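One chain is below:
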Amino acid sequence: MNRRSFCPTNYALEHFGDKWSLLIIRDLMFKGKRHYNEFLEGGEKVSTTVLRDKLRNLEQGGIITQQEDSVKKSRIRYSLTEKGIALLPLMIEMILWSAAFDRDTAATPDFVQRAASDRAGLIAELREALIENHLSEQS
């Protein structure tokens, strides 16, 4: 990945700083989506070209990996890497920020309450599950 500058904000934006990349990360992290068609069928109506490009960029940036699906060999299964899982606190903060300002948020009140009152515990619990579901199968 060619860097435009060494600014930390720029580095982050070059890796995941667009709507579609963040939605793919959200789907992997919170919605259990792992396959191309699952991302494509999401409510945001991403085009096939944009989805393909964003998956490729996330993989090149080390945020996700792809491997052959263990059940259906002709299908690709996407997983978060350690670098991708490290985005969990940022994603939780975005959910909390959105919940504070979007009265129509899809975030459940229970999730928002837990994130607000026990952020560290929630992050630890989710991180453990993500490691189990994403990293253990990459070994």
